[in-house]
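**Reference record**
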Amino acid sequence: MNNLTFFSSIFKKKSNRIKKPFPLDLERSDYAGLNLSNVDFDHANLSGTDFSGANLNEASLIWTDLNGALLARANFSQANMHYASLLWADLSQAILTEADLSCAKLSQANLSGAFCQRAKFQGVFLDGAQLTEANFDQANFYSANLQKTDCTKTNFNDTNLQNTQFEQAILRNA
């Protein structure tokens, strides 16, 4: 085996371990109030972006970086947000009806007053998040991490909470 073949085989193996890239870099953009329904933002870097009040109905945001994004009052109904990273994101009063956030990272996110009826949160990380007065009616939180979350006055009616971690969570009037 020559040096080039050896190098190529090592690079190939290591590249399998590299996290998915964010080829579309729209960091800190302003899309507040826009109609972006059915838009494909898969693998994009949207950290710090302002989507306040925007319509992202049925949008695809798979593996998307939305860390620190302003998403208050945005409509994410039926959006696909598998593996999205929403650390410190503001989703207050957002609409996430039937959205799929399976395996997403929402640590320290603000979902106060969010409407998340029938949304999928399987395997999500919501540790330290604000969920006060949010509506998770018929949502699915199977194997989710809600440690240290504030769930004051949160609606979990008919919600699947099997294997969900609530250590040190505030569940007052939930």
Remarks:
- The radius of gyration is 18 Å.
- Residues 28 and 49 are 4 Å apart (CA to CA).
